[in-house]
Amino acid sequence: MMTNFSWTKQWYPITPISYLEWEHPTPINLLGKKLVIWRDKNQKWVAMDDTCPHKLAQLSLGSINKNGNLMCRHHGWCFDETGKCINIPMLSDEKALETACNSERSQVTTYPTQVLQGLLWIWADNSPTAFEDSTSKQAAVMPEYKVDSSATDWFMSEVPVGYTISVESSFDPSHAQFLHEGIAGFSPERAIPIQHFEVFGEMSAEDGFTLKHSGYNIFNKDMDATRKFTPPCSNTTIYKYSNGKSALFQLYFVPTKPGYCKHIGKFIVDSPKQKGNFWFELLPKYLQTGLKHSSSYKLSNQDLSMMHSQAVNESTGDKTWQKSYFMPSVADVGIVNFRKWLDEFAGGKPAWQSVVEAPFQELSDKQLYDIWHRHTKHCPSCRQSLVLIDKVKDFCQNFTAVLAILALLLIAINLPTRIVLIPLLFGIFSLICSYKLGSIRERFMSSIPKKGLPVVKL
């Protein structure tokens, strides 16, 4: 297999800026490397190895001090935006401090970063020429579109399925009619064979490839679709319909560590904005976002289930994908061409850094459908929603107890039944609210139902 594509000398969109906390460092993984992201005194985002050179503690467990430097939580070592150590609290001798801070052994490696289209991009290479090299390559940003893309938020999750299967699935549009039956009008009965699916232009290591295909259901049968893969992780899809309308789907698949991939996406549709729910829009913005996120996992769970089952079966065989897969239809052209690019130019899989790829392990349902690790812990809106839900839930529980005590007191002093019923009814209502809030809270944590059989239904 040829490997003239460099996995490290590339720009990766690692997270939407809206997912980052400006006051605290954030740990991330990229190609198996543990990195920390933080904002310096000049409001610039810094990416560096998440390892303190003192005793190898994670710098992401530390804090950003009042001088705008990253301070290790273990012993207070401080680092500036270049990765230079600028303070070691346990060294009181100025000459010894200067010598230690100027030593290469006290430095932390940093990586080029930039902010584009609301995403933080990281150059994954850490060679001495990394900052110079990064200026010679453009990031695979979303193309200009006739509809304002800033009105739509990025959505990010880190799923327990690898890079290859994740990207492959995005070049397989026909699966939607079957896997996603019952969502957004998808149905096997509405599926039609894709008539045209072909490579447009040439395939290359740096520019990837472009695919064009026709529709795959009775609603989009007359559309023209273009799917552009820009290495290492971008899939830009544009649907053009016969009525003149169009839609853009921008997807990124970032290989974080073996067996895991970060999915970042934005969907922009050329259609009038739908009128919102008046009462829903009275809620805090972060709660609106959190509730939208928590109600959208059914489709992604369906994808996750199929991709994981595929990974399980791939791990038990010793055949190449060409011999394992049977690809007799035009609809399979996208899958074949992505695999072809991966094999011919990129060594067949991501080049992991600083980590050894362990043998594949099948996940339990609890691991596979864990929402906290997949999304909630990364998303500030969902975390804030959880905090608010817990506060209101606690209030309802305490309020219920107070009302129950009040009802007992009213009974003890022999007041009329109709007066006693007032706190009792309010207490029952408060108890129901607490129970419902508990159910809503669970949607931020896991897709496994708390009552009935603990099975995720596709």
From TrEMBL:
SUPFAM superfamilies: Bet v1-like (SSF55961), ISP domain (SSF50022). This is Rieske 2Fe-2S domain-containing protein. Its main location: membrane. Keywords: 2Fe-2S, Iron, Iron-sulfur, Membrane, Metal-binding, Oxidoreductase, Transit peptide, Transmembrane, Transmembrane helix. Pfam families: PaO, Rieske. Coiled coil: none annotated. It comes from Scytonema hofmannii FACHB-248. Residues 11-122 form the Rieske domain.
